[in-house]
Amino acid sequence: MKQKRGLKRRDKVEAPLPASAGVTIMETDPVGNGSPSHDDIAVLAYSYWEARGYRDGDPEIDWLRAEQELRARRKD
Question: Does any domain span residue 70?
Fold first, then answer.
């Protein structure tokens, strides 16, 4: 039996914290090019969908938003 990849319903992903929360996000960058990891982007994009109650929206827009947010955090 093939196992599905990715997040499962039981995996709890918290909504992103505002920058004022004072939390530092540590992303892994195995390539060393300054880009957020695939997993970090996926988790944040998933949290956007979760915050909308698991409906509506566009996964690609969520992905791009998450990628942009993580890059901005890295610059700070």
Answer: yes
| Segment holding 6, helix H or strand E | none
pLDDT digits (tens, 9 = 90+) for 11-36: 555 555 555 545 445 545 555 577 89
Q: How far apart are CA 54 and CA 7, in angstroms?
A: 13
pTM for this structure? 0.57
What's the structural domain count of the chain? Answer: 1
In a domain, 64, yes or no: yes
Q: Tell me if 39 is assigned to some domain.
A: yes
Name the DSSP letter for residue 70. Answer: H
